[in-house]
Amino acid sequence: MKKETITGKHGYQIDADIAFKDVIPANYDILVISGGRGPEKMRLNKDALEIVKYFFKENKPVAAICHGPQVLISAGVIKGRKATCWPGIRDDIIAAGALYEDKEVVIDGNLVSSRSPSDLYAFGREMISITKHL
Q1: Over the stretch 23-49, which tens digit does the pLDDT of each residue have?
Q2: Any bridge partners for residue 64, and if so which?
Q3: CB neighbours of 70 closer than 8 A, spacing ≥ 6?
Q4: Are the beta carbons of 51 and 102 closer than 8 angstroms?
Q5: What is the separation, in whole angstroms, between the first and last Cα of the chain?
Q6: pTM as predicted
Q7: Active-site positions?
Q8: CB-based contact 89:39 (threshold 8 Å)
């Protein structure tokens, strides 16, 4: 959410070189929303939600895995869309109007979603596939 070093749950670190507030969505071809605990925080950030809304408005590719669809819920873009997610938030995406499917990967137009890290192969494959149409 801001320019800083982020440490993941397994101790891996990455340096975030841009904050959400500084992102120009038009400069990016795909939005990938990770899983884990991050989406719980991202969904509360107005700049992150504006980025998501831009990608949906422009019909640009969006990929969300695990808890990632929480951000889609808060951005108000998942209603009427086919999607999957981590089982623990299944009821949340259904309540937000998504058409839930329990599959390793679900594609609905510009949206690619997967359930968990065990689905990463299918998730990555479909992310690459959807960007070939850019």
Answers
A1: 999 999 999 999 998 999 999 999 999
A2: 33, 113
A3: 39, 40, 42, 43, 89, 92
A4: no
A5: 27
A6: 0.93
A7: 67
A8: no
